[in-house]
Amino acid sequence: xxxxxxxxxxxxxxxxxxxxxxxxxxxxxxxxxxxxxxxxxxxxxxxxxxxxxxxxxxxxxxxxxxxxxxxxxxxxxxxxxxxxxxxxxxxxxxxxxxxxxxxxxxxxxxxxxxxxxxxxxxxxxxxxxxxxxxxxxxxxxxxxxxxxxxxxxxxxxxxxxxxxxxxxxxxxxxxxxxxxxxxxxxxxxxxxxxxxxxxxxxxxxxxxxxxxxxxxxxxxxxxxxxxxxxxxxxxxxxxxxxxxxxxxxxxxxxxxxxxxxxxxxxxxxxxxxxxxxxxxxxxxxxxxxxxxxxxxxxxxxxxxxxxxxxxxxxxxxxxxxxxxxxxxxxxxxxxxxxxxxxxxxxxxxxxxxxxxxxxxxxxxxxxxxxxxxxxxxxxxxxxxxxxxxxxxxxxxxxxxxxxxxxxxxxxxxxxxxxxxxxxxxxxxxxxxxxxxxxxxxxxxxxxxxxxxxxxxxxxxxxxxxxxxxxxxxxxxxxxxxxxxxxxxxxxxxxxxxxxxxxxxxxxxxxxxxxxxxxxxxxxxxxxxxxxxxxxxxxxxxxxxxxxxxxxxxxxxxxxxxxxxxxxxxxxxxxxxxxxxxxxxxxxxxxxxxxxxxxxxxxxxxxxxxxxxxxxxxxxxxxxxxxxxxxxxxxxxxxxxxxxxxxxxxxxxxxxxxxxxxxxxxxxxxxxxxxxxxxxxxxxxxxxxxxxxxxxxxxxxxxxxxxxxxxxxxxxxxxxxxxxxxxxxxxxxxxxxxxxxxxxxxxxxxxxxxxxxxxxxxxxxxxxxxxxxxxxxxxxxxxxxxxxxxxxxxxxxxxxxxxxxxxxxxxxxxxxxxxxxxxxxxxxxxxxxxxxxxxxxx
Amino acid sequence: xxxxxxxxxxxxxxxxxxxxxxxxxxxxxxxxxxxxxxxxxxxxxxxxxxxxxxxxxxxxxxxxxxxxxxxxxxxxxxxxxxxxxxxxxxxxxxxxxxxxxxxxxxxxxxxxxxxxxxxxxxxxxxxxxxxxxxxxxxxxxxxxxxxxxxxxxxxxxxxxxxxxxxxxxxxxxxxxxxxxxxxxxxxxxxxxxxxxxxxxxxxxxxxxxxxxxxxxxxxxxxxxxxxxxxxxxxxxxxxxxxxxxxxxxxxxxxxxxxxxxxxxxx
Lengths: 841, 266
What we know:
The complex is a heterodimer of chains A (841) and B (266). In chain A, α7 (143-150) crosses α22. Chain A contains 35 helices and 17 strands. Helix content of chain A is 51%, strand content 8%. In chain A, the strands form five sheets. In chain A, strands 1, 7, 8, 11, 12 and 13 form a six-stranded mixed beta sheet that branches. In chain B, 35% of the residues lie in helices and 24% in strands. In chain B, α8 (195-207) crosses α10. At the A-B interface, α32 and α33 of A face β1 and α3 of B.
């Protein structure tokens, strides 16, 4: 007998209605949370911080407006308007006020900010001046760190401005024991303490705060129960009336008490999912192995005859929609980097159980089915692939990929499990891993992974090798050897390594400063109750209470650095076809095009510095004149002609991503320049740093602030995506690309790697197409690749969607670590996706 | 171990394409041999037709089409995807041009693949003496054979040659039982895309012993720019590819009039 029922299930009419309502309007910013948290903080000035946090959480949950939307079966909304957001002034707020006017018209992820809400938020924000997480983090950073951030060598903006999130909590415990179980555990811990214990003060207050937060959540569910009853009493449609009554029953039961049914378990998971995000503004709170922890109640319902597969599917579909109801406003720059309103709630199906047996069940298939039914960006659906994965499951996943939704992402158990064990997890824990956010593996319920800690632009130190650490006329990096005196490629490599290691240190300084600020300013008591071992240790996650602690900043731009390094090695040092001085000029003058701001600013800075050194007066008109003179001298006809020759010579050098050993080995070495030095560093929670290699979609905006690179990439243009080859240079097909990428040592990249591939739908046509597609993934995974994801959509469709966005409201494409609505992306990112080589032909 | 003599055999190719997934089982690498006996008007690889090395303009750049290589050199690329073949049951596919125009090279490539345990396939019109074909069959797992038309005159008009030899060879290959023979039909508007013409091919194929599958390959124009690049005129200018409904209708006709399994596309 088969271990699972994989038959397809039809979507109900309710689901389309819910989807339509969700996207009927532009998302809005609401003011309730900002007002309530400010009130609560003002009323609790002299209390311990953790108690203040819990009381603020309670005040919010008791007073924030609640709503049950038409047709909903799973309830709990953070905002009155669908798909809208609250604000979190305790983390940061200045950027938000500055963008009230422009948020509605900006290209990436626009939001409407109604005047009344803007005024109320502004009023509340006054209280937070100098008191935010951002303020404290800044004061912890060294001046050179702040300089490096200002110059876009790396960005740590994610947690600098916002909550951390990036966690998977003990959904299973709350389903089985209810929050009452969590409270009982905290109470028992409290009663085991003596008031004379050295850590009594802070630990007892944390335990009290956990209990208070759980009460607050139960009270919030109670409000929904009352609202449902009230609506039921007025409802004339008998079917809806019964639905509302059932909602009331559910909300009286969960999440306080154990879920009795599958339906209630879905409601439990949703309340946790929603309220963890309301507690802090952290994103990437990931439901993880939903098909595993939901299975016992599913099985029970089916066996007892109290649940049909069709009902279960509808509850799951409704949960999928709720995951898209949450939203978050980011600052304009970050919005470009995370484009697509993404909250990166990663949910993973399939894989192994803790004892190494295949864990695929009915729900694994129903998770895929839900993404067929609800083709929206959330959740970030993932599937685990291992040597024992049922073929049928992988083929179903491939069928979903074929729809062009960009889901699921595929993860390799055979690579990830040993990697996690090398970080100290037990075999059983490693086998039970889930994925957080984009691509970050961890054991759920006991890890504070600080994944996504920074974007580190690997191309910037390469620029600094040519300028000996100068940027825009400022000495930013170390003064490495003058490139013009370099005799060997090894000297060049050494300088690059030196620049890299210097900036990695500053990155660590920045992350640790922010990490400390979170511990001191915004510890999260509700979260602490749901992650081991916070109750035992008496510390929140931010304070180091989790069993496993990491910090995972990700580097990107391997392809550009590798191709550039190989070009330098070949053309300058081996073949001597281009002199170092010519190459330096070509890059400085962006191969003859000095119009991008990043080029002009660098020239202006350099010129100004020279003028100061010469004792000249610095008048703007004088500087401008000097800049024009420098540009004119650097871009004469002969010089531009030579730059074009150089570009064409670079073009002829082999590129990473085409299964050419020399180019791929270069990429492997360049990945090491970032991944290896990071491993020596520790965070304030006692955890280790681990590298990630992926840019989400930051490769586009951070490309804008990066000068020309020796791989022939022009200044301001996007940097390569993920760990894949540079866009357009992967001309040898997907197997060659996969072979090349597998050459990188991914086993030490604990924070995850990302390989995007773009396929035309016809490459997946027929049974052969699907089977071969699955075998492509399997083979890449045989070679220890960790992750693979696909855009399957035609170029024509994308171009048409750019022209007529109104016809493509629901067009989802895979962008880096997540799926996004294509029409919501900025034009440049859209172009980038279109430009990716179409493979398979 | 592959025979050294085989590895040193040279031949002329114009392309190698990896991750080919619709030309034989599994994930495959196609080696395109240069030179062809026919001159099909719709040919999407016009640069394959002449044996001589040519210059073709592509994206504004001149490109040399055709190079002489040894079997060993070809396998340097082919073997890069070994792990994909193992996973998927794929391997090497020869295409062209007409591979049989270089019989010694084709045989050496296929024999080398078999000696390494690799699955083999060949796309071919079987336009050569049967002795030549027969010497290759022991090394060929799947023969993807084109049959374009059953009418000799029309065949000659559109491809430059009559079809008697090819149809005769199809029979002999099928009767030999040495390879899995699959019939493929490029479905070309104005040439063979009527129900009667397709059914006639299907009925011929159905009578071949052991043949179970027929592929209908829809016409496409992806090769059009190459004619210009070679300084040649595209004789099919203005011919529009069939719509999906038409292809489905032809498929239905094949299924109704034969015992063959029919698929659209390779």
